[in-house]
Structure formats: structure tokens, C-alpha cells
Design a protein that fits this description.
The complex is a heterodimer. Chain A is an all-beta fold. In chain A, the strands form 2 sheets. In chain A, strands 2, 4, 5, 6, 9, 10 and 11 form a 7-stranded mixed beta sheet that branches. Chain A has a 4-stranded antiparallel beta sheet with strand order 1-3-8-7, with no helix packed on it. Chain B is mainly β. Helices cover 0% and strands 50% of the residues of chain B. Chain B has no helices and 12 strands. In chain B, the strands form 3 sheets. In chain B, strands 2, 5, 6, 10, 11 and 12 form a 6-stranded mixed beta sheet that branches. In chain B, strands 3-9-8-7 form a 4-stranded antiparallel beta sheet, with no helix packed on it. In chain B, strands 1-4 form a two-stranded antiparallel sheet. Classes of the chains: A mainly beta, B mainly beta. At the A-B interface, strand 4, strand 5, strand 9 and strand 10 of A face strand 6, strand 10 and strand 11 of B.
């Protein structure tokens, strides 16, 4: 297993366009997380899945954001009608379903909205 | 609520110098504490962790002790190397059903030969 994989690594889009990112977690991990990191800040939690169920969403996740994990494997994060404030690094992480187990992070997708 | 306050950077040290990066936290209950490291061009990697008070996490010569009485988890290394140049993030977790992490703002360390 090569770890958590995210695609694309970079995305430049025009304001108002929709974008979709993909995350492939470590295969045996049932938990999958999305975080957002802006310049000079630490990552901030957006949402998480336990298998295919989305169990928690942060207040940061506006109505324009939607995440799915249809078969409990890979996940997608879609942002509709992008705004310049959406420019950030979007990080995916996965972990086993065990209390306080370690989260493994992907390299992230850097989104630039112009 | 949960929060992590981390020593602001950037920090520049000479090779073989002693490193301390301060981290304090606010949380209810008994969180787990972590240090993550991000090397240039790479993703976040777990450096070390501690899951209860007085635990010491250690890895690659780095150490941090979970101090409940001072709500701190300071990162230390006795002799840094150029290869330690990276951004270091303190984080807490285990406070919600999601077990998601709350991160500090990160400290950039540059080690010069």
C-alpha cells in the first residue's frame, strides 16, 4: 500500500466553477477525514466518514461543499460555485476504527480560485 | 472548546543545537496529543504521540511529554540536523466521536549547517 492518495495535486479554477477532488485512503482503513489548510495555518477539520456513512460535518463545510464515500473506499469532495476564499490546501486522512488510532495524511490538493 | 497554541516561528538553528517548540492546549477531558511534521513537498506525517498524562512520546530523537498540570506538550530534540528542517504541528485529538484532530498553526524550523 502506498498510503493515502489524493488527486489532483493542484487545481486552478475560475470563480463560480465547480471542482471535485478525490481521495483514496489506505485500503483497510474505515475512517476517512477531510481537512482544509490555508497559508500559515494548521489544518482544520471539515468532515469524516465511517465506512460510507458521513457522520460529522464541521461548520466550515458550507452548503456549497459536499463529500461522498459511496462504497466505503475512495471519497470525493466537491465544491460548487467556487469563491476566492475557497483557495486552500485540501487534505485527506484515513485511520482504522479504533479509539485514538493514528491518522495518515495524503499530500493534499492545492486549490487556487482566480 | 478545543484549541492548541503553538510557539510562533520561524525558528532557525545551527546544526547540533538544542530544539524546543512550545505547545499548550485547551480541552475538556483527556485528549491524546500529537506532533506532526511536514517536510518540504510532502504530506503530514505523525512524528510522535502521547495518549495520557505523563506519557512521553519519542521518535527520531524527538521527545514530548504530556503534562496535564501545565496543559503542555513541548517538542524537544537534543541535537538537530539539517534534515530536520520542516514545519511542525502540535495537535490534539480523541475529544469527539469523530476522533478528528485540532491543530496548532505550525512552526517552521530551518537548520543551517
Amino acid at each position: 500500500d502506498t498510503g493515502v492518495s489524493q488527486n489532483p495535486r493542484h487545481k486552478i479554477t475560475k470563480r463560480g466553477q465547480n471542482v471535485t477532488f478525490r481521495c483514496d485512503p489506505i485500503s483497510e482503513h474505515n475512517r476517512l477525514y477531510w481537512y482544509r489548510q490555508t497559508l500559515g495555518q494548521g489544518p482544520e477539520f471539515l468532515t469524516y466518514f465511517q465506512n460510507e456513512a458521513q457522520l460529522e460535518k464541521s461548520r466550515l463545510l458550507s452548503d456549497r461543499f459536499s463529500a461522498e464515500r459511496p462504497k466505503g473506499s475512495f471519497s470525493t469532495l466537491e465544491i460548487q460555485r467556487t469563491e476566492q476564499g475557497d483557495s486552500a490546501m485540501y487534505l485527506c486522512a484515513s485511520s482504522l476504527w479504533a479509539d485514538r488510532s493514528e491518522a495518515f495524511f495524503g499530500q493534499g490538493t492545492r486549490l487556487t480560485v482566480v | 472548546g478545543n484549541s492548541v497554541t503553538q510557539m510562533e516561528g520561524p525558528v532557525t538553528l545551527s546544526e547540533e543545537a538544542f530544539l524546543t517548540i512550545n505547545c499548550t492546549y485547551t480541552a475538556t477531558g483527556y485528549p491524546s496529543l500529537f506532533w506532526y511534521v511536514q517536510y518540504p513537498g510532502e504530506g503530514l506525517q505523525l512524528l510522535l504521540k502521547a495518549t495520557k498524562a505523563d506519557d512521553k512520546g519519542s521518535n527520531k530523537g524527538f521527545e514530548a511529554t504530556y503534562r496535564k498540570e501545565t496543559t503542555s506538550f513541548h517538542l524537544e530534540k537534543g541535537s538537530v540536523q539539517v534534515s530536520d528542517s520542516a514545519v511542525y504541528f502540535c495537535a490534539l485529538g480523541g475529544q469527539t466521536g469523530a476522533n478528528n484532530l485540532f491543530f496548532g498553526t505550525g512552526t517552521r524550523l530551518t537548520v543551517i549547517p
